[in-house]
User: Fold this.
Amino acid sequence: MQKLLILILSLLVLIFVFVVDAENSVQQRGAVQQPSLRWYKGNTHTHTINSDGDSTPDEVVRWYREHGYNFLVLSDHNFLTKVDGLNSVHGAEEKFIVIPGEEVSDKFGDKQIHINGLNVERLVEPQGGKSVVEVIQRNVNEIRSARGVPHINHPNFGWAITADDLKKVENNKLFEIYNGHPLVNNLGGGDKPGLEEIWDAILSSGKLLYGIAVDDAHHFKDPWNRNASRPGQGWISVRAAQLSNSAILEAMEKGDFYASTGVELTDYQVNDKQITISIREVRTSKYRIQFIGNGGRVLKEEITNPAVYQFRGDEGYVRAKIIESNGKFAWTQPVMIRKR
Ligand SMILES: [Zn+2]
Ligand SMILES: [Zn+2]
Assistant:
């Protein structure tokens, strides 16, 4: 009789635990009722025969469409290519869009200053100015007034733009930390810092800029030429609610994307306690994840997947760099840490 009572009691406890658990999981599901977000792969810097590229807009768009990209910005020097026809041929809902754009190509003295205008509604002419910073700022402002999103290109091309210049520019959120053109000095050299060092100097000053990777592709027809600037070198993967010009650009300006030269992530999460990075591993590759903070210091190196970094509160900022064993990289966007 006592045994039966214990059995009935245990069964009641089990049923109770099951019900509470089920309710909890329903509540948890209810708590994350955001629009479902997806990752979209794209390149925001590409040339065609409308400036100094070697291929027509149709051929260029076709290359990206056939190589797994979801969006492409055509950015010819001081030329705005119309994209309606391209979208009617190559566009497909939630699969692929062409976003209009232009590489506003200006200079100060012998320094080439190039700024992309993404989704500008009209051609933006180079604005000139009395210093490097003024040239950048005037072009950024003009891109904004054409309802476009600016990004500052290849700072080390001709060693034109320094970290101090970039710190002073307002109304701009994005700059290239990797550009696939073979003559843009991504890594720096001699007394000149590389683009990641430039990024860390800017972030350490407290200014938030997001880093993008781009192709700056010009050459689609000369694959064996080592000096060619080819497609497929650098891209971004953007997390957005849908594949549209505005959703992609809004997510980019919020820093909800990562930049890559070949590493893919399956997920990237930040909350007030930690960053979690999940890599889509290639079976034969190995990975290291560096979490980087103030002054470019490596705060922690991880080899696990997913990799987790828990905030301490004194890092200034934290960004992650994923290093793949064949020299491919991904960079996540910095999280600014406010002292608690
Ligand atoms: Zn350029
Ligand atoms: Zn370019």
